[in-house]
Design brief:
Elements (H helix, E strand, L loop, with lengths): L1 H7 L4 H16 L7 E4 L16 E11 L3 E8 L3 H12 L4 E7 L15 E10 H7 L6 H16 L1 E5 L3 H9 L10 E3 L1 E6 L7 E6 L1 H9 L2 E4 L1 H6 L3 H11 L6 E3 H7 L11 H20 L3 E9 L6 E8 L4 H23 L1
Antiparallel strand pairs: 1-10, 2-3, 3-6, 4-5, 5-9, 6-7, 8-9, 11-13, 12-13
């Protein structure tokens, strides 16, 4: 009787939305091999410069905005593609995640005071240098370990924080010199990095900040084809691919969004014909690289508008079909077999 009542109960709006979202997720899965599960705003950000290394300078502070997707504040230096790849590699090593409780550095004495807990829950990635080299497809050599040590040191010294809430509203308020109001938070991505040596099997412990902990617990993660990310040679491609792959229903992207992903002000005051021409050349090379690396099957470029303000739109076909597309392919194959069988029997 109770089961019947449960079956007859009308779903709430929230439950219907959750079911619909789950269905869309299942239909849009691409069967990526050992993907990275990354917080969405870390795939749709311009906080990583389109070059291998950035600069470390304690006086640098900059806000990176991708309209409609993210606002990230970086202090103490500039991040490059090697920092992005390192973070993605850590997210890919899901089996190395550990939950633990540690002493709260803000707690006074040995007890609680004013509601401050003595201990806090943390999420850490405990890996070896070898784990990281293997997952990134790099040679297991001590020279590469030293390179990774330097990258980790920079990640530890550069603070990257993510604004929660509507990104465009956050930027409007920041531009006006006001603090974003309503729902929102500013929390670090990485709270600390420690390692016990620079041998291949030395342990590396990365403690994630509240931004990542919240994303893990609310499952606000997207699946990224890390095989392609680590195979890319073009620095522009490394900036574009995470955005493209984390938006499974998209089939095109405008160059205005591509420019946002590398913090380039297309048609801005500092834009010139020569810079724009080089930008478009680099974009084409990036898409060629995404095809060569197995991320995209093919792409075409459409021109929109006229004159100086003419823009390019990149239409693309993902190399891996979604679950829904696989269903269509299977139906097409079944229909072809039925036709062939009918012809044989006739």
């Amino acid at each position: 009787m109770q089961n019947q009542l449960d079956n007859d109960r009308k779903l709430t709006e929230a439950e219907e939305k959750r079911l619909a979202r789950d269905k869309r997720t299942r239909l849009n899965r691409r069967g990526r091999k050992d993907p990275s599960a990354v917080p969405a705003r870390l795939t749709r950000t311009s906080a990583f410069a389109p070059r291998r290394y950035g600069t470390v300078n304690a006086n640098i502070e900059r806000v990176f905005h991708v309209p409609g997707h993210s606002v990230v504040l970086v202090k103490g230096g500039e991040l490059g593609s090697v920092h992005r790849d390192m973070i993605y590699a850590l997210f890919r090593l899901k089996s190395k995640l550990a939950n633990s409780r540690v002493r709260n550095p803000l707690a006074p004495g040995n007890g609680t005071l004013d509601g401050v807990s003595t201990h806090i829950d943390v999420i850490e990635s405990v890996v070896s240098w070898r784990d990281l080299l293997l997952t990134m497809g790099k040679t297991q050599h001590v020279n590469n370990v030293m390179t990774m040590v330097h990258v980790m040191e920079e990640l530890r010294s550069i603070t990257m924080t993510i604004y929660d809430g509507d990104p465009d509203e956050v930027m409007r308020r920041l531009a006006a010199g006001r603090v974003p109001h309503g729902r929102g938070q500013i929390t670090g991505v990485i709270d600390g990095v420690e390692w016990d040596g620079v041998r291949l099997d030395s342990k590396v412990r990365v403690r994630w900040g509240r931004t990542v902990m919240t994303a893990f617990r609310t499952r606000a993660m997207v699946s990224l084809n890390a095989e392609v990310q680590f195979a890319l040679k073009s620095e522009y491609a490394k900036s574009f691919w995470p955005f493209i792959d984390s938006n499974p229903t998209h089939v095109y992207i405008d160059e205005t969004m591509l420019a946002s992903l590398i913090s380039y002000d297309l048609f801005g005051a500092d834009d010139t014909n020569a810079r724009r021409s080089q930008f478009r050349k680099d974009c084409r090379q990036a898409f060629d690289d995404m095809v060569k690396s197995g991320g995209l099957r093919h792409y075409t470029i459409e021109e929109l508008g006229s004159g100086r303000m003419k823009v390019r739109r990149y239409h693309y076909k993902h190399a891996l079909p979604t679950a829904a597309e696989k269903g269509d392919i299977q139906l097409d194959l079944l229909a072809s077999l039925q036709v062939a069988e009918a012809g044989t029997s006739g």
